[in-house]
Design goal:
The protein has 402 residues and is mainly α. 52% of the residues lie in helices and 4% in strands. It has 17 helices and five strands. The protein has helices at residues 17-27, 31-51, 60-72, 85-93, 108-122, 128-145, 158-169, 174-193, 221-229, 236-251, 255-260, 289-301, 325-338, 346-359, 364-371, 376-380, 387-393, and strands spanning 2-4, 7-9, 266-267, 272-276, 282-286. Strands 3-4-5 form a three-stranded antiparallel beta sheet. Strand 3 (266-267) and strand 4 (272-276) form a beta hairpin. Helix 5 packs antiparallel against helix 6 (128-145), helix 10 packs antiparallel against helix 12 (289-301) and helix 14 runs antiparallel to helix 15 (364-371). It is flat, with a radius of gyration of 26 Å.
Length: 402
């Protein structure tokens, strides 16, 4: 038995308690949070001992069984897989717990999907989260038609494709059905390139209805100012959120682009910022003075010295790693609530930045450069939000006096 932070750890995980305590300190956990993590480890160690298991048995399903037992025992905190991440991460680095992988009974369909995932990451250059989303959408299709491996794909027909998408779309929201169609088209294109299907069945995927109502209403200048003013510059979190919101509002960045920003992406001497956009694309943009000042204030008087990576924007709680895109969006939502503006999320600030350029007389080409659109048709969507500007550009009908 080992006692760390006042927590007694007995059982198969006791030899690792001292190292775990040190790891929690490195990750930036406060003494109270570290004690709570050690209490979870102590409970897990007792549970493993009662089940006759050790750390090597800590696979995903075993961890799920422990969490179910913890909920059944009446515990009210640390009940999700996220609660075990610090402990399992430490044990895996020591090769005590097994690395996560494919399900224990990985099917032929799962193997084909894993090959598809590798193609998305390696050949198509998509982000890991996007690839994971694609696989989640097309997994039912693969399990139905590739249960016997590639043998079943040779007889796959266009009718099978349309029947699957039609049946699934009845139970999905329009936007989700569109994403399913895109993912299914991508999977079938990969299978055709691999010679697994008899033809280019991606062409058989019908287009899902597009009922987009148009762009969200852009924020007025005063509303943007209220958002920024809601961030308290006297606190570390307030400085961080002010810097993020200023980037979103001034440069029209996406939430994931703010989350991916690293210390090396800011060139203070030239006053430029390098943005990691979609598909591995890199763009350099001028860094506005107010955004630069907000970032500098956060770096000098807010960003924790013990940050675990080189991300510019770091979590307020341990582990002190970079923010996720979802956390950036939630920071915008929290600022909107404080400012009394209702539900506002990060992408709406992108639209606001674009329409602000248009309102000041900027061209669609200038908007496209700032937002880094690859196609002018994407930028053209912003003409919907400024009818008066369009009227000034419209030519009079022949024979009608203006």
């Amino acid at each position: 038995m080992v006692v760390m932070h006042g927590v007694r750890v007995a059982g198969p995980l006791a030899p690792y308690a001292e190292g775990l305590a040190g790891e929690l300190g490195r990750l930036g956990f406060t003494p109270t949070s570290a004690r709570q993590q050690l209490q979870v480890a102590a409970h897990l160690s007792r549970w493993l001992a009662e089940a006759g298991l050790d750390g090597a048995a800590l696979t995903g399903p075993v961890a799920d069984r422990f969490l179910a037992a913890r909920r059944a025992a009446g515990y009210t905190a640390h009940l999700t897989p996220k609660a075990l991440c610090p402990l399992l991460g430490y044990l895996r680095r020591l090769s005590v717990a097994p690395e996560p992988g494919l399900p224990e009974a990985a099917s032929s369909a799962e193997a084909l999907l894993e090959a598809y995932r590798a193609w998305l990451l390696g050949e198509r250059g998509v982000q890991a989260a996007v690839a994971r989303g694609y696989l989640d959408l097309v997994r039912p299709f693969a399990e139905r038609h590739a249960a016997d491996g590639s043998a079943g794909l040779g007889v796959l027909t266009a009718g099978d494709v349309t029947a699957f998408l039609t049946a699934r779309s009845r139970r999905l929201a329009p936007k989700t059905a569109q994403r399913l169609a895109t993912a299914l088209r991508s999977l079938l294109r990969f299978w055709h390139l691999q010679g697994l299907t008899g033809g280019p069945l991606d062409r058989a995927v019908p287009r899902a209805a597009n009922r987009r109502p148009g762009l969200p209403r852009p924020l007025e200048h005063g509303e943007v100012a209220s958002l920024l003013a809601s961030c308290d510059p006297q606190t570390a979190v307030g400085r961080r959120d002010l810097a993020m919101l200023t980037l979103l509002a001034r440069l029209g960045l996406r939430a994931q682009e703010v989350a991916r920003l690293t210390l090396d992406d800011i060139d203070w001497r030239s006053g430029e910022i390098s943005i990691a956009g979609k598909g591995g694309r890199r763009d350099r943009l001028p860094l506005p003075a107010d955004a630069g000042q907000a970032i500098a204030a956060w770096l000098l008087h807010g960003r924790p010295a013990g940050a675990l990576d080189c991300s510019v924007f770091i979590r307020a709680r341990a582990p002190r790693s970079g923010l996720t895109p979802g956390a950036v969006t939630q920071a915008v939502a929290a600022a909107a609530q404080r400012a009394g503006l209702g539900a506002i999320y990060a992408h709406r600030l992108r639209h606001s930045a674009a329409t602000a350029i248009l309102a000041k007389g900027g061209s669609l080409a200038e908007i496209g450069q700032v937002l880094r659109h690859r196609r002018i048709v994407t930028t053209a969507a912003y003409t919907k939000v400024n009818i008066e500007a369009l009227r000034r550009l419209a030519r009079p009908w022949p024979g009608v006096s203006s």
